[in-house]
Amino acid sequence: MVSDLDTSDGALPGAEAVVRVPKTAELVANSIRRRIIQGELSEGDTLPPEAQLMEQFGISRPSLREAFRILETERLIEVKRGSRSGARVSLPKVESVSRYASYFLQASEVKVSDIYEARLALEPYVVRALSDRPSAPAVARLRAEVSKLAAFSDDNQEREYMIASAHFHSVLMEVGGNATLYFLTRVLEDVIAQYQKRHVTAAADVAQRKRNREAGVKSITKLIDLIEAGDADAAEAHWRLHLTNTSKTWGSDKTLREVLA
Q: Does the keyword field hold DNA-binding (predicted)?
């Protein structure tokens, strides 16, 4: 008996299709996954003991453990072997997605330049939206981030500067208020940070790299000033130019597979 579990495959009425009956473990995993996604289970919550779950779902121990393995693979639970406590819930994290996205982009032989072009397609829209409705908390958050960048630049902490620079783009999208665009940028952030950290010393000589960092801080500061002033046209144009110049500096016709191998 596996109760209250959805076994439908979404096929249209009358459609000719081979119906695959889900395995018991898959049905149990679906049930627990649904509770996690719908917020019934929170980060760190402990699932009931195995014996209780076996009774609840009317399944065998091997089927339950197979369900656990499915959820572990999806990083939705953590099971400590030998522990008397139950499996712990782990909510979906963007880091897991970005890591897999990096593998996918490398395997697909996507060019480095594509990643920077993606930024150019996304960020000017958010900059305009922020400038149309400038808010003090958003501006304060952006100024806090550029202060970190300036400190890393002044201290010649190049790798830290590159990581913070990639993160600034995510913060920009976060305060922009569009959750989907923020998610996409978080995925790109990890890939860009990997690339820039590896090639930070290959961009130019030390003095030129310092000038580039200083110019970057100045450009970002100007963006924030324009957003705060509510000058949407100027802010969008400035950021579009900034991203275009960044793409020229860091973009490459090499693939991510080549540069991250």
A: yes
On whether both 42 and 126 belong to a single domain, the answer is no
Name residues whose C-beta falls within 8 Å of residue 178's C-beta, 6 or more positions apart in sequence. Answer: 126, 129
User: Can you give the CATH number for the domain in which 37 is found?
Assistant: 1.10.10.10
17 domain residue, yes or no? no
Q: Domain range spanning residue 74?
A: 24-89
Distances (CA, A) of 186 to 37, 109, 141, 143, 148: 20, 20, 17, 19, 19
Q: Is the pTM of this model over 0.90?
A: no
Using DSSP bridges, classify how beta strands 77-78 and 88-89 pair: parallel, antiparallel or unpaired: antiparallel
Asked if residue 151 and residue 243 are part of one domain, the reply reads yes
Below-70 pLDDT ranges, the chain: 1-19, 21, 82-85, 200-204
